[in-house]
Amino acid sequence: MSIWIMKSEPDEFSIDDLARRGVEAWTGVRNFQARNFMRDDMQVGDQVFFYHSSCAEPGIAGIAQISTKAYADPTQFDPKSIYYDERSQTQIARWSCVDVRFVRKLNKPITLSKLKAFASKLEGLVLLRPGNRLSIMPVSMAHYRTILKLEEKI
DNA sequence: GCCAACGTTGGC
DNA sequence: GCCAACGTTGGC
Length: 154
Hints:
Elements: E1 3-8, H1 15-21, E2 23-25, H2 32-41, E3 47-52, E4 59-66, E5 71-72, E6 96-97, E7 99-111, H3 112-117, E8 136-139, H4 141-152
The protein binds a DNA duplex (12 and 12 nucleotides) through loops.
C-alpha cells in the first residue's frame, strides 16, 4: 500500500464535498508527473491525505482512499469542460484519473504550519520542499505515521 | 493581490 | 535538444 497527498482547493472541492459524495472521480489533473503517479503507481486501497490548498488555512483536512485503478479522464474529451484537451483522442488519452473514496474528516486539520513545525521529523516530504507545486505527491510510510501522530498533538 | 517558483510550450 | 516566454500554482 502506498500513501499519497492529493491537493484540492476547498472552494472547488473540499473534504466536506467528498464526505457528501462518498466517491469522486479525481479529474482535471493536467500535470504529467501527477498523472504518472495516478496512472503508474496508484493501487486500489492506497491511503490519501486530502489536502486543502489556496485557502485561509492550508493543510490536511481528511483521509481518503483510492478506489479504482487509473482510467482515462473523461473531461479531456468533453469540449464543454474547462479540462478539455483537443490533443486527446479517445484512442490515446493523455490524461488519467482515479476514483477517491471518503474515509474520514480529521477532527482538526493538520495545517501546513504545523507540518512545518515538525519539519525535522518530516525531512524529505515532498509537500514541504520549497517551491513544490505538485497536486499529487507520494508520502513515505514513516512520514505517514508521523503525520497521523500529529493529529493528536495540539 | 503579489510574486516566486516551476512546468509546459514552441521557435530555433 | 536548448531555452526564453508564458501560464499556473499556492503561500503569504
